[in-house]
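Appendix B, record 7
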Amino acid sequence: MALFDAFKIAGSGMAAQAQRLNTVASNLANADTAAEPGKEGYKARKAVFETVFQKESAGRTGAGVGEVRVKTVATDNSPGRLVYDPKHPMAGKDGYVLMPNVKVVEEMVDMVAASRAYQTNAEIMNTAKNLMLKTINLGQ
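Structure tokens (predicted):
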């Protein structure tokens, strides 16, 4: 694996984690969005990753460089939660309001994990850069 491959792998990881953070932000922004009676409300979304292997480069052996990408953003189809609030404008005849199926604590954990993965990929890029600079300075 060439040192430049580290940039490609870490960069793809950063892009995937950024999209994961965007889905978490969307989920958290809609966590308290009530649905109208008889309608389906907001459903939580999750980024699904996949590994994509590039073809081998000319003159090199091995499986090729692997990158991570967001395969799809899946929708969680579990039912939303019902909250009893008869004074809410979106409450049904029985006084219940349909809220999204977003679990705020799980989303916060997912956000921290994605943020740390993003930071780790940034550190990998920084380390690869420093290794390249030290290699260039070896001849001086």
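Remarks on this record: DSSP finds two helices and four strands in the chain. The two ends are 25 Å apart (CA to CA).
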